[in-house]
Specification:
This protein is α/β, with parallel strands linked by helices. 21% of the residues lie in helices and 22% in strands. It is built from 7 helices and 11 strands. The strands form 2 sheets. Strands 6-5-4-3-7-1-8-11-10 form a 9-stranded mixed beta sheet, with helices on both faces. The longest helix is centred in the N-terminal third of the chain and has 13 residues. The protein is globular, with a radius of gyration of 18 Å.
Protein backbone atom coordinates (compact mmCIF):
# COMPACT_ATOMS: atom_id res chain seq x y z
CA UNK A 1 0.00 0.00 0.00
CA UNK A 2 1.09 3.62 -0.29
CA UNK A 3 2.93 4.54 -3.50
CA UNK A 4 1.61 1.74 -5.75
CA UNK A 5 -0.83 3.90 -7.72
CA UNK A 6 0.21 7.54 -7.20
CA UNK A 7 -1.46 8.59 -10.48
CA UNK A 8 -4.88 7.91 -8.89
CA UNK A 9 -4.34 10.33 -6.00
CA UNK A 10 -4.85 13.63 -7.84
CA UNK A 11 -8.67 13.79 -7.56
CA UNK A 12 -8.89 12.23 -4.10
CA UNK A 13 -8.91 15.43 -1.98
CA UNK A 14 -11.88 16.88 -3.90
CA UNK A 15 -13.79 13.57 -3.96
CA UNK A 16 -13.05 13.08 -0.27
CA UNK A 17 -14.83 16.34 0.59
CA UNK A 18 -17.51 16.64 -2.06
CA UNK A 19 -18.69 13.13 -2.92
CA UNK A 20 -20.16 10.19 -1.06
CA UNK A 21 -18.77 7.73 -3.59
CA UNK A 22 -15.93 5.44 -2.48
CA UNK A 23 -12.45 6.76 -3.13
CA UNK A 24 -10.35 4.95 -5.74
CA UNK A 25 -8.21 2.11 -4.35
CA UNK A 26 -6.21 1.99 -2.22
CA UNK A 27 -7.31 5.30 -0.72
CA UNK A 28 -10.81 4.45 0.47
CA UNK A 29 -9.57 1.77 2.86
CA UNK A 30 -6.97 4.15 4.24
CA UNK A 31 -8.79 7.48 4.35
CA UNK A 32 -12.50 6.59 4.14
CA UNK A 33 -12.84 6.41 7.95
CA UNK A 34 -11.77 10.06 8.19
CA UNK A 35 -14.69 11.40 6.15
CA UNK A 36 -17.15 11.67 9.05
CA UNK A 37 -16.97 11.39 12.81
CA UNK A 38 -19.06 9.02 14.89
CA UNK A 39 -19.53 11.37 17.86
CA UNK A 40 -20.26 14.90 16.65
CA UNK A 41 -19.54 17.23 13.74
CA UNK A 42 -15.76 16.91 14.04
CA UNK A 43 -13.10 14.42 13.04
CA UNK A 44 -9.76 14.69 14.85
CA UNK A 45 -6.75 12.63 13.76
CA UNK A 46 -3.48 12.32 15.64
CA UNK A 47 -0.34 11.43 13.70
CA UNK A 48 3.01 10.19 14.99
CA UNK A 49 6.06 8.94 13.14
CA UNK A 50 8.37 6.76 15.21
CA UNK A 51 11.09 4.15 15.23
CA UNK A 52 10.64 0.44 15.94
CA UNK A 53 11.54 1.11 19.57
CA UNK A 54 8.93 3.82 19.94
CA UNK A 55 11.16 6.89 19.62
CA UNK A 56 10.05 10.07 17.88
CA UNK A 57 13.42 11.83 18.13
CA UNK A 58 16.97 11.35 19.38
CA UNK A 59 17.97 12.61 22.86
CA UNK A 60 19.01 15.91 21.22
CA UNK A 61 15.57 16.29 19.65
CA UNK A 62 16.63 15.49 16.07
CA UNK A 63 13.85 13.81 14.08
CA UNK A 64 14.48 14.65 10.38
CA UNK A 65 13.67 12.20 9.08
CA UNK A 66 12.70 9.12 11.04
CA UNK A 67 10.14 8.22 8.40
CA UNK A 68 11.04 7.63 4.76
CA UNK A 69 9.43 8.97 1.57
CA UNK A 70 6.29 6.78 1.82
CA UNK A 71 5.64 7.75 5.44
CA UNK A 72 6.15 11.43 4.67
CA UNK A 73 3.85 11.19 1.64
CA UNK A 74 1.18 9.71 3.92
CA UNK A 75 1.52 12.69 6.26
CA UNK A 76 1.13 15.12 3.36
CA UNK A 77 -1.94 13.23 2.15
CA UNK A 78 -3.47 13.66 5.59
CA UNK A 79 -2.74 17.40 5.40
CA UNK A 80 -4.43 17.56 1.99
CA UNK A 81 -7.63 16.02 3.39
CA UNK A 82 -8.13 18.02 6.60
CA UNK A 83 -9.37 21.55 7.24
CA UNK A 84 -6.58 22.34 9.69
CA UNK A 85 -3.29 20.93 10.93
CA UNK A 86 -2.30 21.69 14.54
CA UNK A 87 1.10 21.63 16.23
CA UNK A 88 2.38 22.70 19.64
CA UNK A 89 4.80 25.56 20.11
CA UNK A 90 7.58 23.11 21.04
CA UNK A 91 7.43 21.66 17.53
CA UNK A 92 7.40 25.17 16.04
CA UNK A 93 10.50 26.21 18.00
CA UNK A 94 12.39 22.95 17.42
CA UNK A 95 11.51 22.18 13.79
CA UNK A 96 9.96 25.35 12.28
CA UNK A 97 7.60 23.27 10.08
CA UNK A 98 5.86 24.68 7.01
CA UNK A 99 2.78 22.43 7.42
CA UNK A 100 2.04 22.69 3.70
CA UNK A 101 1.15 20.01 1.13
CA UNK A 102 4.25 19.54 -1.03
CA UNK A 103 4.80 15.82 -1.61
CA UNK A 104 1.35 15.09 -3.10
CA UNK A 105 -1.43 16.96 -4.90
CA UNK A 106 -3.95 18.76 -2.73
CA UNK A 107 -4.83 22.03 -1.00
CA UNK A 108 -2.95 23.44 1.96
CA UNK A 109 -4.90 23.25 5.23
CA UNK A 110 -5.24 26.02 7.76
CA UNK A 111 -2.20 26.02 10.05
CA UNK A 112 -2.85 26.15 13.80
CA UNK A 113 -0.16 26.74 16.42
CA UNK A 114 -0.86 26.01 20.09
CA UNK A 115 1.21 28.68 21.87
CA UNK A 116 -0.09 29.23 25.43
CA UNK A 117 2.61 31.69 26.50
CA UNK A 118 3.23 33.56 23.25
CA UNK A 119 6.78 32.31 22.70
CA UNK A 120 6.49 31.40 19.01
CA UNK A 121 8.88 33.41 16.80
CA UNK A 122 7.10 35.93 14.57
CA UNK A 123 9.25 34.55 11.73
CA UNK A 124 7.88 30.99 12.06
CA UNK A 125 7.31 29.43 8.64
CA UNK A 126 3.75 28.39 9.46
CA UNK A 127 2.87 32.09 9.73
CA UNK A 128 3.94 32.76 6.14
CA UNK A 129 1.14 34.62 4.28
CA UNK A 130 0.65 32.20 1.37
CA UNK A 131 -3.15 32.14 1.17
CA UNK A 132 -3.80 29.47 3.81
CA UNK A 133 -5.42 30.45 7.10
CA UNK A 134 -3.02 30.89 10.01
CA UNK A 135 -4.36 30.53 13.54
CA UNK A 136 -2.66 30.95 16.92
CA UNK A 137 -4.30 29.46 20.02
CA UNK A 138 -3.00 31.05 23.22
CA UNK A 139 -3.78 32.04 26.78
CA UNK A 140 -2.12 35.46 26.42
CA UNK A 141 -3.12 38.78 24.92
CA UNK A 142 -2.81 39.25 21.13
CA UNK A 143 0.68 40.02 19.81
CA UNK A 144 1.25 42.97 17.51
CA UNK A 145 4.47 41.56 16.03
CA UNK A 146 2.87 38.68 14.11
CA UNK A 147 2.28 38.92 10.34
CA UNK A 148 -0.94 40.50 9.13
CA UNK A 149 -3.94 38.22 8.77
CA UNK A 150 -3.06 35.79 11.58
CA UNK A 151 -6.18 34.77 13.51
CA UNK A 152 -5.95 34.88 17.30
CA UNK A 153 -7.89 32.57 19.65
CA UNK A 154 -7.50 33.22 23.38
CA UNK A 155 -8.61 30.37 25.66
CA UNK A 156 -8.11 30.38 29.45
CA UNK A 157 -5.98 27.68 31.02
CA UNK A 158 -7.49 24.93 33.14
CA UNK A 159 -5.07 23.22 35.50
CA UNK A 160 -2.17 25.05 33.90
CA UNK A 161 -2.99 24.00 30.30
CA UNK A 162 -5.40 24.95 27.56
CA UNK A 163 -7.94 22.09 27.39
CA UNK A 164 -7.89 20.19 24.07
CA UNK A 165 -11.70 20.09 24.00
CA UNK A 166 -11.84 23.89 24.22
CA UNK A 167 -9.35 24.17 21.36
CA UNK A 168 -11.42 21.90 19.13
CA UNK A 169 -14.63 23.72 20.04
CA UNK A 170 -13.06 27.03 19.05
CA UNK A 171 -11.83 25.61 15.74
CA UNK A 172 -15.26 24.12 15.06
CA UNK A 173 -16.86 27.54 15.55
CA UNK A 174 -14.50 28.88 12.89
CA UNK A 175 -15.46 26.24 10.34
CA UNK A 176 -12.44 23.95 10.91
CA UNK A 177 -14.09 20.60 11.51
CA UNK A 178 -11.57 18.04 10.33
CA UNK A 179 -8.35 18.56 12.30
CA UNK A 180 -4.97 16.80 12.11
CA UNK A 181 -3.00 16.98 15.36
CA UNK A 182 0.46 16.49 13.91
CA UNK A 183 2.82 17.11 16.77
CA UNK A 184 4.73 16.98 18.76
CA UNK A 185 4.23 13.75 20.62
CA UNK A 186 3.35 15.58 23.85
CA UNK A 187 0.57 17.51 22.09
CA UNK A 188 -0.82 14.36 20.46
CA UNK A 189 -0.67 12.61 23.84
CA UNK A 190 -2.61 15.41 25.54
CA UNK A 191 -5.38 15.24 22.94
CA UNK A 192 -5.51 11.46 23.28
CA UNK A 193 -5.57 11.56 27.10
CA UNK A 194 -8.43 14.10 26.94
CA UNK A 195 -10.52 11.81 24.73
CA UNK A 196 -10.27 14.24 21.81
CA UNK A 197 -8.99 11.94 19.03
CA UNK A 198 -11.17 9.91 16.68
CA UNK A 199 -8.21 8.16 15.03
CA UNK A 200 -4.50 7.83 15.67
CA UNK A 201 -2.10 7.12 12.81
CA UNK A 202 1.26 5.75 13.96
CA UNK A 203 3.79 5.26 11.17
CA UNK A 204 6.60 2.95 12.30
CA UNK A 205 9.90 3.13 10.44
CA UNK A 206 12.34 0.17 10.32
CA UNK A 207 15.01 1.87 12.41
CA UNK A 208 16.11 1.58 16.04
CA UNK A 209 17.25 4.77 17.80
CA UNK A 210 18.01 3.08 21.12
CA UNK A 211 17.17 6.12 23.22
CA UNK A 212 15.46 9.45 22.87
CA UNK A 213 12.01 10.96 23.04
CA UNK A 214 9.10 8.55 23.17
CA UNK A 215 5.76 8.67 21.33
CA UNK A 216 2.49 8.45 23.24
CA UNK A 217 2.73 9.36 26.93
CA UNK A 218 -0.46 8.87 28.97
CA UNK A 219 -1.18 8.88 32.72
CA UNK A 220 0.36 5.81 34.39
CA UNK A 221 -1.55 2.63 35.10
CA UNK A 222 -0.74 -0.08 37.65
CA UNK A 223 -1.58 -3.23 35.70
CA UNK A 224 -1.18 -4.28 32.09
CA UNK A 225 -4.81 -5.42 31.94
CA UNK A 226 -5.82 -1.78 32.54
CA UNK A 227 -4.17 -0.72 29.31
CA UNK A 228 -6.19 0.94 26.56
CA UNK A 229 -6.81 -1.62 23.83
CA UNK A 230 -8.25 -0.24 20.59
CA UNK A 231 -9.28 -1.65 17.20
CA UNK A 232 -6.53 -1.21 14.62
CA UNK A 233 -5.89 -1.77 10.94
CA UNK A 234 -2.39 -2.01 9.51
CA UNK A 235 -1.16 -0.83 6.12
CA UNK A 236 2.19 -1.17 4.41
CA UNK A 237 3.81 2.07 3.28
CA UNK A 238 6.74 0.63 1.35
CA UNK A 239 9.10 -0.53 4.14
CA UNK A 240 7.13 1.21 6.90
CA UNK A 241 3.94 0.13 8.68
CA UNK A 242 0.98 2.35 9.45
CA UNK A 243 -1.11 1.48 12.50
CA UNK A 244 -4.54 3.07 12.05
CA UNK A 245 -6.09 3.11 15.53
CA UNK A 246 -9.81 3.68 16.04
CA UNK A 247 -10.27 5.76 19.21
CA UNK A 248 -13.91 6.64 18.63
CA UNK A 249 -15.06 4.58 21.62
CA UNK A 250 -13.07 6.92 23.90
CA UNK A 251 -13.90 10.13 22.01
CA UNK A 252 -15.84 12.71 24.02
CA UNK A 253 -18.26 15.21 22.42
CA UNK A 254 -16.51 18.52 21.94
CA UNK A 255 -18.09 21.79 23.06
CA UNK A 256 -19.88 23.59 20.25
CA UNK A 257 -19.48 20.55 18.03
CA UNK A 258 -21.83 18.67 20.33
CA UNK A 259 -24.61 21.11 19.43
CA UNK A 260 -24.44 20.08 15.79
CA UNK A 261 -25.76 16.58 16.46
Amino acid sequence: MGEAVPDLWGDVPEKFRNSLAPLPPPWDELFGPLRAGKIDGMVTIGQIGQSLDGRTATPTGHSHYINGPAGLAHLHRLRALVDAVLVGVGTVVADDPQLTVRRVAGPNPARVALDPDGRMPATAKLLTPDGARRVVVTATAPRSDLPAGVEWIAIPRTGGQIPPAAILAALFERGLRRVLVEGGADTVSRFMAAGCLDRLHVVVAPIVLGSGRTGINLPPIERADEALRVPIRTHRLDDEVLFDCDLSAQRKPVGAAKKST
